[in-house]
Amino acid sequence: MSPTVVNLIYLIAGILFILGIKGLTKPSTAVRGNQLSSLGMLIAIVVTLLNAEVVNFTYIIAGGVFGAAVGAFMALRIQMTSMPQMVALLNGFGGGASLTIALAEYFSVLNVDANSFAELLVPVALSSDAFGAGGEGQVTLISIGLTILIGAVTLVGSLVAFAKLQGLSKKNIGLPGGPAGNALLLLGAVIALGCLVISPNQAVTVITLVALALLLGLFLVLPIGGADMPVVIALLNSYSGLAAALAGFILGNTVLIIAGSLVGTSGLILTKIMCVAMNRSLGNVLFGKMAAAGEKIDADEIYAGKVTSAQPDEVAMMLEVAKRVVIVPGYGMAMAQAQHAVRELADSMESRGIEVEYGIHPVAGRMPGHMNVLLAEAEVPYDKLVEMDRINPTFEDTDVVIVIGANDVTNPMAREAEGSPIYGMPILNVDKARNVVVIKRSLSPGFAGLPNPLFAMDHTLMVYGDGKKAVVEMTTALNQI
């Protein structure tokens, strides 16, 4: 296959990637966008395999079949509540794959036994153009070094994010000095990268780079709490794309450069959007410092004698006379898998002429767009999902707001408690509505670890229990009125 034909097909695949990402910007075109991107990747893989001088397809076919089986199993079995963990794992797999490519390329040129520690410590005699003549060799070495650095950071960082989201790791532990410690690790990794470019014949330099990058990935994510995981996932997604693009330079593969660049840049844009939504600094995200701990706030002082509870049938009576209702979903809805029950409650209210909309905070849940995905699964009309900036001015004219597990993104402390971990974070101003109903198992804090003064306000009713069960009971009671 001629290089011209290959590059032309790669260009077509790149166009499909761009159209796919464009489709993912809207819920109504997201499925088609995903299909276009998948088609582009399939074309790219097939053309690459046909164009490469593959001696034996046995391992490639075996790997493809095994990978497809694992991917299909995960896609079919993973619940929507666990989707953030899956995304974190996929980011890690992407970074790990790029890291493996870089190491394989380096050691194949060095021609040493990577299993023999003694051989790795001894400099190897290399020709001046072992990695390419002139500038090409320098670009290859820089690409190998950066791919190792970013790929290792992405791999370990994503695994830590997975552990935190899965509840396997709950401690936020960082290096002494916080961001300064991470900066020193990064500096050491950059120095090791520079030594690799200057003296590529010493494998110990690469080993040092890998070790420093793995530690950097660990301590970039380990100090970050669950409340900031949406930002971390977006950033790790960007890292995985950058690592893939650099791996494309190593292999001389145009379509890998294109795909990686698209993922890297779109992930970075998404990270910036998430930072704005959570009032976080992009610099702090890059160096593993997120929300400050702030002073300890006494929940008993906020809640004592001020919280009013209610039963679902009491809420149904309130809804029966309402003209406008806004539903605010959060991770509690995801955990209870209550999205279908929520849609049925909305349908019941709309049949009575009540205007119903959904207030969507950009970081509600544990990954960007988490609530949109869940509600789309329940076939909630896309035009009913209203973004924070558009829904906030309407709360003063809203009769009832139903909050389902959305704790931190509705906490008035973000506006009022200077010095708190969420101070300055844009929130859904549900407390400005005439009545607020909060469905929650208990008064336990959200990911930020803060009590929510909303629960103790005079116009707020707390409905305790499983979110799905409570919503179903509300719907049943409303239908009987």
What attributes does this structure have?
single chain, 19 helices, six-stranded parallel beta sheet, Rossmann fold, 481 residues, elongated, 58% helix, 3 domains, alpha/beta
* SSE topology string: HHHHHHHHHHHHHEHHEHEHEHEEH
Strand count, sense and barrel status of the largest sheet are: 6 strands, parallel
Number of continuous helical runs: 19
The number of distinct structural domains comes to 3
Mean pLDDT: 85
Determine the structural class based on helices, strands and strand pairing: alpha/beta
Which strands sit side by side, in order, in the main sheet?
3-2-1-4-5-6
Say how many strands there are: 6
Residue share in helix = 55-70%
Distance between the termini: 72 Å
Q: Given the C-alpha coordinates, what overall shape results?
A: elongated
- Estimated radius of gyration: 26 Å
Task: Tell me the β content.
Answer: 5-15%
Segments where pLDDT lies below 50 for 5+ residues?
A: none
Question: How would you explain this protein's 3D organization?
Answer:
With 481 residues, the chain is an alpha/beta fold. The protein has 3 domains: 1-77; 81-286, no CATH class; 299-480, TPP-binding domain (Rossmann fold, 3-Layer(aba) Sandwich). Helix content is 58%, strand content 6%. The chain contains 19 helices and 6 strands. It has helices spanning 3-23, 30-51, 58-77, 83-110, 117-121, 135-165, 179-198, 203-221, 229-251, 254-278, 282-286, 299-303, 312-320, 331-336, 339-350, 370-377, 388-391, 413-416, 467-480, and strands at 324-329, 355-360, 385-387, 400-404, 435-440, 460-464. Strands 3-2-1-4-5-6 form a 6-stranded parallel β-sheet. Strand 4, helix 18 and strand 5 form a beta-alpha-beta unit. Helix 6 runs antiparallel to helix 7 (179-198), helix 6 runs parallel beside helix 8 (203-221) and helix 13 crosses helix 19. The longest helix is centred in the N-terminal third of the chain and has 31 residues, at 135-165. The chain is elongated and about 85 Å long. It starts with a helix and ends with a helix.
